[in-house]
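User: Let's play a game. I give you a shape written as tokens, and you guess the letters that built it. Ready? Here's round one.
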């Protein structure tokens, strides 16, 4: 077989393979086709999202206090009756339990322990305004340090003041 006959046979074979590929592609499109409707509709997506949503939620530290503060306050009621939040005697204790207790129960970083009259006496002598300012803005002293708002930047100033007042009342 000469070169010319070989090239002619090879070209014919290539053309036949390309034609076969085109025919198979067309047949596959006809048989497979496109689905008449989308596989996942919006209703199905909502149902799936409802089934797989989390059962609960875990909050730790600052998020817990923010939720506590928002859950216990009603902006409309606070605007109408400003003393509505002040009437809750346990408000300061709730904030203390949620945030302040982490340091003030064990004396971490020089924090005066709740009920330790000797440690609280010089602080109480400075006055409530100074204690509130140090608790809200933070304070660095010789005995230790107080982070702003006890490390919970989501807490309201009123909540921090209530917690400070609670600790002072327990330490006189």
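Assistant: Ready! My guess for every position:
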């Amino acid at each position: 077989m000469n070169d010319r006959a070989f090239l002619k046979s090879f070209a014919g074979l290539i053309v036949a393979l390309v034609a076969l590929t085109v025919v198979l592609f067309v047949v596959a499109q006809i048989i497979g086709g496109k689905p008449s409707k989308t596989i996942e509709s919006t209703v199905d997506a909502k149902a799936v999202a409802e089934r797989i949503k989390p059962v609960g939620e875990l909050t730790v530290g600052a998020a817990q206090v923010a939720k506590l503060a928002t859950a216990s306050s009603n902006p409309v009621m606070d605007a109408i009756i400003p003393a509505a939040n002040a009437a809750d005697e346990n408000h300061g204790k709730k904030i203390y339990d949620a945030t302040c207790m982490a340091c003030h129960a064990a004396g971490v970083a020089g924090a005066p322990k709740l009920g330790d009259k000797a440690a609280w006496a010089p602080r109480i002598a400075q006055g409530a305004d100074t204690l509130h300012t140090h608790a809200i803005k933070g304070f660095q002293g010789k005995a230790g340090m107080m982070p702003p708002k006890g490390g919970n930047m989501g807490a309201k100033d009123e909540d921090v003041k209530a917690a400070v007042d609670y600790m002072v009342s327990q330490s006189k």
